Amino acid sequence: MVKIGNIELGEFPLLLAPMEDVSDPPFRAVCKDNGADLMYTEFISSEGLIRDAIKSRKKLDIFPYEKPIGIQIFGGDEEAMAMSARIVDATQPDILDINYGCPVKKVVCKGAGAGVLRDIPLMVRLTQAVVKSTSLPVTVKTRLGWDDSSINIEEVAERLQDVGIKALSIHGRTRAQLYKGEADWTLIRKVKENPRIQIPIFGNGDIDTPEKALEYQNRYGVDGIMIGRAAIGYPWIFNEVKHFMKTGEKLAAPSMKQRIEVARKHLKFSVEWKGEKTGILEMRRHYTSYFRNIPNIKPYRQKLVEFDAYEQVDELLCEMEQEFMNAFVEA
């Protein structure tokens, strides 16, 4: 049984990665429905929380059915991180996660996210400040290092465990790689096999099929897998991985009816949570993945990203369900 603090996650949990502008409550809802064991919010700026910025505060929205749920924060100032940890603590999630992995330039330039990988003592101080400021179990998501010449994940894992984190998720790339090239899980395995490491180690990077998930579980010995981009527009991947690991058989790809049902739920929640204009606009990034590899879908998909009224989009989804009623596709 894998545990983060006192939170039981099962024998081999599947985690939904925190993704900016993706891992919001509507997206998390459909991932939870389809087998995600632990989910994290989009990352939240510690400075934004302290300033009471509306966008940052909005990201604190969590719902009972999501549990266990982790709220992720980022920042490069110890005092700000400690204060934001206390704010998060008051919202009562199950876990508080720290982001030391985001490679985006605007985050890195502020000395946050993956920018902290260049200053391990600062990373340790930031982590310690958060641990001391919350009653929640603290976890960390990070990368292998800043670049190939400064890979330091083994040292990082030991030092962060020493200051009190309860689990570590490792993306198998450096900051310099961004999302290019192949993730290197051999270094994740080294961390997991380190006899000093007693906390759960979760691997992240390139998991996009049930077969690869099982292969990486067996080859690298991690405690669980974090799935990110492969879940965008395809939340079924969590249950597909679980089924394959249990039976060795692949589940049938979701039918068009199933795809539309999930897309409709996602859209409805998006509009309710964000308002009609923003909810419709931000759903557009998901449609390509929801309806990938379906013959003759292009005209409908074009309309999905043009319509700006909820009723229009909902009616179009109903029309698509009738048009493609018997369609099954390979993901």
Number of strands: 10
Largest sheet geometry: 8 strands, parallel, barrel
Low-pLDDT runs of 5+ residues are none
SSE order: EEEHEHHEHEHHEHEHEHEHHHHH
Helix percent reads 40-55%
The chain-level mean pLDDT equals 92
State the distance separating the first and last CA atoms.
31 Å
The largest sheet has its strands arranged as 3-4-5-6-7-8-9-10
Shape assignment: globular
SS class: alpha/beta
Please tally the helical runs, counting DSSP H or I stretches of 4 or more residues.
14
Describe the overall structure.
By secondary structure, this protein is α/β, with parallel strands linked by helices. 44% of the residues lie in helices and 14% in strands. The chain contains 14 helices and 10 strands. It has an 8-stranded parallel beta barrel, surrounded by 5 helices. Helix 1 (25-33) runs antiparallel to helix 11 (256-274) and helix 4 (78-91) packs parallel to helix 6. The mean pLDDT is 92.
Topology, please?
Layout: E1 3-4, E2 7-8, E3 14-16, H1 25-33, E4 38-45, H2 46-51, H3 54-58, E5 69-74, H4 78-91, E6 95-100, H5 105-108, H6 120-133, E7 138-143, H7 153-162, E8 167-171, H8 186-193, E9 201-204, H9 210-220, E10 224-227, H10 237-247, H11 256-274, H12 276-290, H13 298-304, H14 310-323
Parallel strand pairs: 3-4, 3-10, 4-5, 5-6, 6-7, 7-8, 8-9, 9-10
Antiparallel strand pairs: 1-2
Helix pairs in contact: 1-11, 4-6, 9-10, 11-12, 11-14
Concise account of the structure shown:
With 331 residues, the protein is of the alpha/beta class. The chain has helices at residues 25-33, 46-51, 54-58, 78-91, 105-108, 120-133, 153-162, 186-193, 210-220, 237-247, 256-274, 276-290, 298-304, 310-323, and strands at residues 3-4, 7-8, 14-16, 38-45, 69-74, 95-100, 138-143, 167-171, 201-204, 224-227.
